[in-house]
Amino acid sequence: MRKSIILVALVSLLTGACCSNGSEKTIEKFNQIAKDVKKAYAPDSRDETFNVSIEKDDDGELNINGYTTVPAAKDSLLQALKANNIDADIDIEIIPDAEELEGKVYAVAAQSVINFRNEGDYAAEAATQCLMGAPLKVLMNEDGWTLAVTPEGYHAWVSSSTIARMTAEEFAKYTAADKVVLTVKYADIKEAPDASSQQVCDAVWGDVMLDLGRQGNWWKVGIADGREGYLPASVLVTFPDWVASRKPTPENIIATAKTMIGVPYMWAATSVKAMDCSGFTKNVYYLNGIVLRRDASQQCKTGDDIDVSKYSVDSVYTREALANLQMGDLIFFGRNRDRISHVGMYIGDGIFIHEAGKVHISSLIPEDENYYTGSKRLQRACRIIGNVDCGKNIWSVNELYTKNPAIWGE
């Protein structure tokens, strides 16, 4: 109903004068229509894709091209164009298009860490990362880049060379296959069960690989793109055993976080190699069996909202004002509750750990030596623990890696 009202209002606003084909005024009207449709149907490009544009060809004719994951957005756009007498050659694709993708609508991350960008270009802004073995949904391919959806539902572009694309049958077989998980920060996968043999590739903490069998002190592993190699058996555990051993208690969460002290900051990074603030919280929880949303502005809207208004609104900068917080809670900083730009993880007694330049421990209490100068920008907090797989956008690793609705489309 809300979107219908928006469409009617949009059409009423713009209808009234016939738009002459090829005029700058027509292009201006189209851009406004497209902006309003995107706002109504795909306001956050991290969650849905709506990318349309208009251009004038050499003959002065208008061409409207683009793609979207929201069929209703295309329908709304076409209705608005018709109502405003905008005549153009229109080609808007609904993605994913299984036929165009030759059936390969799934993929798996095939490097230790794969990098996503906001556009299919190495010069584009970095968006996020996924670890080896992460299941992906493929939306489209273009010039060596793949628009894909990460396990937690993030839309971004990744270099096609870093993933293994699969048909539904291939993906189902891969998902069902036995797997192992790396349990140390860094390791080198070797060509042979010999530490002096050639490296196949690197691996990082939390990477998931195919289990090809243990051979004495070595374990043969497979990467989704077909490469095989060996790792010391002491650094691996089977995926089921790893999942079963995850105990996301407050103490375990903070213990994991402290192992990353000193890890450098890098925008959009989410692995132990480097990370940004929300990549840090995401990685810590992942290693304890829980998958979070990607960005701080997304994470703050998950779990249970925890009242920190005594500190953030009443300006009482004391430990008592933080009494509602528990170890492991996420705390968020920004201009206001709706403009979040930083996240940390609460330890207790006014102390928290976060990634800012490097992972380190800071205090929210002005008198403390390690006082965080951005503390007065604290706006909100949320509780992750106890809110997994219950409709609050927090998932268990097993849920997302074996039966993920965002990937399978169920």
Rounded to the nearest angstrom, the radius of gyration is 24 Å
Number of strands: 27
Strand content: 25-35%
CATH class bucket of the largest domain:
Alpha Beta
Helix segment count? 11
Cα end-to-end separation: 24 Å
Task: Please name the fourth-level CATH homologous superfamily of the largest domain.
Answer: endopeptidase domain like (from Nostoc punctiforme)
Low-confidence stretches: 11-22
Q: What is the arithmetic mean of pLDDT?
A: 93
Helix amount: 10-25%
Q: State the CATH topology of the largest domain.
A: endopeptidase fold (from Nostoc punctiforme)
Strand order of the largest sheet: 6-5-9-8-7-4-10
Structural class by helix and strand composition: alpha+beta
When the domains are counted, the total is: 4
Shape, per Cα inertia axes: flat
CATH architecture annotation name of the largest domain: Alpha-Beta Complex
* Sheet of most strands: 7 strands, antiparallel
